[in-house]
Amino acid sequence: MRVLEIFASLQGEGVWAGTPMTFVRLAGCNAAAAGLECVRWCDTKRSWDAGAGEELTPAEVAARVHLPRVCVTGGEPLLQANGLAELVALLHARDVQVHLETNGTLPLPPGETPDWITVSPKPPAFALAPGLRRIDEIKVVVDAGLRPETVEALAAAHPEAQISLQPEAGAAPVSTERAVALVLAHPRWRLSLQIHKLLGLR
Ligand code: SF4
Question: How many angstroms is it from 31 CA to the middle of ligand 1?
Answer without folding.
Answer: 6
